[in-house]
Design a protein that fits this description.
Elements lengths: L3 E5 L5 E2 L14 E5 L3 E10 L11 E8 L4 E7 L8 E11 L5 E9 L8
Parallel strand pairs: 6-8
Antiparallel strand pairs: 1-2, 1-3, 4-5, 4-7, 5-6, 7-8
This protein binds zinc ion.
Length: about 120
C-alpha cells in the first residue's frame, strides 16, 4: 500500500487522517500527497491489555515524525525501540475484528527490517 498524507491547500500543513478542518488555518480543502517512508520515533509504549481484534498478547505502538513534519500513530514493529531512532513506515493490516473486518494503519519498522511482532 502506498503511503500518503493530506496537505491543506490553504496553508500547506500535512495531516493524517483526513480532517474536516485544518487545525492551523481552518481550511476545508486538502489534497492527497505521496509520503516518504522515512520517519523518526518520537515516543512509544507497549500495551498488554489490547482490545479485541489484535489477537496478540501485546503490541507496541509509536508516534513517528516524517520528514515533512507530519506525526502519526502506528504499530511499532521493532525489537528494541529507542526514541529518536530512524524508522521505515509501511501501511498494512493492523487489526482484524471478529466479523473479519480489517483495519489498516501505519506500521513502523527499524531501518534494518521488521522486528519481532508477536
Ligand atoms: Zn491549513
Amino acid at each position: 500500500m502506498a503511503l500518503f498524507a493530506y496537505r491543506c491547500r490553504n496553508c500547506g500543513l500535512f495531516t493524517f487522517p483526513l480532517p474536516c478542518l485544518c487545525r492551523s488555518c481552518g481550511g476545508r480543502e486538502f489534497e492527497a500527497v505521496p509520503l516518504s517512508s522515512r520517519c523518526r520515533l518520537i515516543t512509544w509504549t507497549r500495551l498488554f491489555a489490547l482490545p479485541s481484534g489484535y489477537k496478540k498478547p501485546w503490541r507496541s505502538f509509536g508516534i513517528a515524525e516524517f520528514e515533512n513534519g507530519l506525526r502519526v500513530t502506528g504499530v511499532l514493529d521493532c525489537k528494541n525501540p529507542m526514541v529518536g531512532m530512524e524508522l521505515h513506515a509501511v501501511r498494512g493490516i493492523v487489526r482484524t475484528h471478529p466479523d473479519a473486518r480489517s483495519e489498516t494503519g501505519f506500521i513502523f519498522q527499524a531501518e534494518n527490517g521488521p522486528g519481532l511482532l508477536p
